[in-house]
Amino acid sequence: MKARHEFTSEKEWLEYLKTYFAAMAMQGLLVRYVENGMYGNQINYPMVEQAAVMQADALINELNKPTTNG
Length: 70
Description:
- The chain is mainly alpha-helical.
- It contains 2 helices and no strands.
- The protein starts with 9 loop residues before the first helix and ends in a 7-residue tail after the last helix.
């Protein structure tokens, strides 16, 4: 994973994070298919892609929430 200082703008950094998190989520989703004996054209790739992006967005939103002490 690249370091924050390697980016020239906040937008570029956030786009990178979203892509990184989505890729990690996609790995997990695809493992579930393989564990269930599904391969190749048996996998609904558009659904996997959409779910991975949704998970990345949810993680970024959660990380951007202010923390509470207590």
